[in-house]
Specification:
The protein is mostly helical. It has one domain. The protein is about 80% helix and about 5% strand. The protein has 5 helices and 2 strands, in the order αβααβαα. Strands 1-2 form a two-stranded antiparallel sheet. α2 runs antiparallel to α3, α2 runs antiparallel to α5 and α3 packs parallel to α5.
């Protein structure tokens, strides 16, 4: 490595937002909860505006959320935890997700925008948003549990 590349790497390492794995676990949990809450809030607003029976649309959304949580999102959380928990030292703040996951998030955002601007009636869209939003919130609990275990282990070490 030449001298210029070496100094450039030092500069990047100084400005890289490095955090420990507790911060990564918290950030992952917070992001999943925040996005889930946003989706649930949108769904609630759509169901409140319409003169339809909200339970007829919310009920299936809740049932779908349980399936999405159990069969889909928990696998993603477990993969992220398997990547985060063995990490040592400070890591980039944005490494709470893999790069592949960032691409998936971009695709999901684009699909969400397309759905919100589609002619699909909002109560039907609310069912989908409840399903995904609640599944995100439920799945985030696994990040929080890992964070609490880490905190408890650190407290036990300090005694």
């Amino acid at each position: 490595m030449n001298k210029q590349n070496g100094s450039m790497m030092k500069t990047f390492s100084r400005i890289r937002p490095g955090v420990d794995k507790s911060a990564l676990l918290f950030t992952a949990a917070f992001m999943w909860i925040a996005v889930g809450a946003m989706m649930l809030s949108l769904a609630y607003g759509w169901l409140q505006r319409g003169a339809v029976h909200a339970v007829a649309f919310a009920g299936p959304g809740i049932l779908m959320a349980l399936a999405i949580h159990h069969f889909g999102f928990l696998k993603v959380v477990d993969k992220n935890l398997a990547r985060i928990l063995p990490m040592e030292g400070k890591r980039c703040f944005f490494s709470f997700m893999s790069w592949k996951s960032y691409l998936m998030v971009a695709l999901m955002i684009a699909m969400g925008v397309a759905l919100r601007h589609s002619p699909l009636p909002k109560p039907y869209l609310a069912t989908v948003y409840i399903a995904i939003g609640l599944a995100l919130v439920l799945s985030s609990l696994r990040y929080l549990r890992a964070l609490l275990r880490r905190h408890d282990a650190l407290v036990d070490k300090s005694k």
